[in-house]
Design a protein that fits this description.
Helix content is about 40%, strand content about 15%. It is an alpha/beta fold. Helix 10 (about 300-325) packs parallel to helix 12. The radius of gyration is 21 Å and the shape is globular. The protein binds pyridoxal-5'-phosphate. Pyridoxal-5'-phosphate binds near residues 248 and 255. Pyridoxal-5'-phosphate binds near residues 40, 192, 222, 248 and 260.
Length: about 425
């Protein structure tokens, strides 16, 4: 990094978890020999792929495709898509929102960049605000996206032991302090990396807290409701007027089309629209039009529930069986996987850091993500932070099994020394 580069750029050019993850994904594309249990790529689910191909074909045959790829859409997104999403939310979730409450972005990552930097950092009223993460581990990029590095307040979770294998994190509400220095609260549900799904009671308490302090609650539903519903327990997604709901088409299988949707109060939507206009002129409408019919017909709900969710559930069960086989005597704990498509391993007796373990596993051609990157703002002295690994089970079963075999061998070798 050159000294003459701006401080703004320095935030993104240094070592970040997001960059490590994306560099690893790049290495995998260049070297197909790797087993990739690292990134957040969704699986290629044949029924979904077929539907998306069909939609593209219809767009091409009807001539709409030509207009679609040659036109700058509004920075709010394609109006047909926005209307369809509004009707969908009203019809399926009973939400009282109109079109001015919805904006499309170039992926949720872009939604979070905009939202975090809207609410955190030095503000116009002279207050220096932060984003509050009520519980870590949290999505790897939350810590990286803030232009102002210190603008994050994050909390340790309560670790609840379920049995000899499983544990579950929960929010320590007594630790949460909300002051005027907090700009917004953010939570992913289901959570990437842990597969945790905060309970309805926890969600209710977060809504109560943020409503009381008139703070935005950013709910990252990239894996959750209303699509793709990679959720293995029944929870509801309540509507709160002050909440900001972030949806994405990525985990349906459209990660390459970079389409995010934000639902919030109109002033927030207007702010995102302005930032979209300046930073991108307009937003990508290919994803929007590809799923337009699926949203209008509500087929997106059936596909989420009957195709996407069962696909990942089956992969999860197979992966858990394999974990039972390979990790049996290693003292590996697993966060109860209630959603998303990751297993979060906790190895309390690990004598090396998870980062060192990651390098050893990578040297054997298997990619995972070391847990420390998912605890932004949490001190290294908290041992748990360096005892966890995230692995994706979106890959084919053969790769998962080979990956688990290598991971277990490296854990065993580390434990022996
Ligand atoms: C929890 C979470 N939020 C947001 C994102 C970003 O998703 P998108 O592809 O919509 O930018 C991801 C991607 O993996 C994620 O896991």
């Amino acid at each position: 990094m050159k000294d003459s580069y701006s401080k703004f750029s320095a935030r993104f050019l240094g070592r970040t978890g997001t960059k490590l993850l994306m560099d690893d994904l790049g290495e995998v594309s260049a070297n197909p020999g790797y087993i990739n249990l690292g990134g957040g790529n969704p699986a290629l689910i044949p029924e979904m792929t077929r539907r998306f191909r069909e939609s593209i074909r219809e767009l091409v045959d009807s001539g709409e495709f030509d207009k679609l790829v040659s036109t700058y859409e509004s920075p709010q997104g394609n109006d047909l898509f926005i209307r369809a999403v509004q009707e969908f939310l009203k019809d399926t979730l009973g939400w009282d929102v109109n079109e001015s409450n919805i904006v499309v972005t170039n992926g949720s990552q872009s939604s979070f960049f905009t939202l975090f930097n809207l609410f955190a950092g030095p503000c116009m009223d002279g207050v220096n605000r932060s984003i509050l993460l009520p519980m870590t581990p949290e999505y790897i990029s939350y810590g990286d996206l803030l232009v102002n590095e210190g603008s994050l307040v994050s909390h340790l979770p309560k670790i609840n032991e379920i049995d000899d294998t499983f544990f579950k994190y929960s929010i320590k509400f007594d630790d949460l302090r909300v002051s005027k220095e907090i700009g917004a609260v953010c939570v992913s549900r289901p959570s990437n990396p842990s597969g945790n799904v905060i309970t309805d009671s926890e969600m209710g308490k977060l809504i109560e807290l943020t409503e009381k302090h008139e703070l935005p609650l950013i709910i990252d539903s990239a894996y959750g409701q209303p699509f793709p519903e990679i959720l293995f327990k029944d929870v509801s997604l309540p509507f709160s007027k002050g909440a900001i709901y972030c949806f994405s088409l990525s985990k349906l299988g459209l990660a390459g089309l970079r389409t995010g949707v934000v639902v919030a109060e109109k002033p927030i939507i207007d702010a995102i629209k302005s930032i979209n206009a300046v930073t991108s002129l307009s937003v990508n409408a290919v994803g929007s039009l590809l799923v337009l019919k699926l949203i209008k017909s509500r087929a997106i709900t059936a596909l989420s529930r009957d195709v996407v969710k069962p696909f990942y559930k089956a992969r999860l069960l197979t992966t858990l069986d394999l974990c039972g086989l390979y990790f049996r005597d290693l003292g590996v704990r697993i966060h109860r996987p209630d959603g998303a498509f990751f297993l979060w391993l906790w190895i309390p007796d690990l004598p090396i850091t998870s980062s060192e373990l990651y390098h050893r596993i990578k040297a054997r051609g298997v990619l995972v993500i070391p847990g420390n990157y998912f605890f932004p703002g949490i001190s290294d002295s908290w041992e748990h932070k360096n005892q966890c690994l995230r692995l994706s089970y979106a890959q084919d079963v053969e790769s998962i099994e080979r990956g688990l075999q290598v991971i277990s061998q490296e854990i065993r070798a580390a434990l022996k020394h």
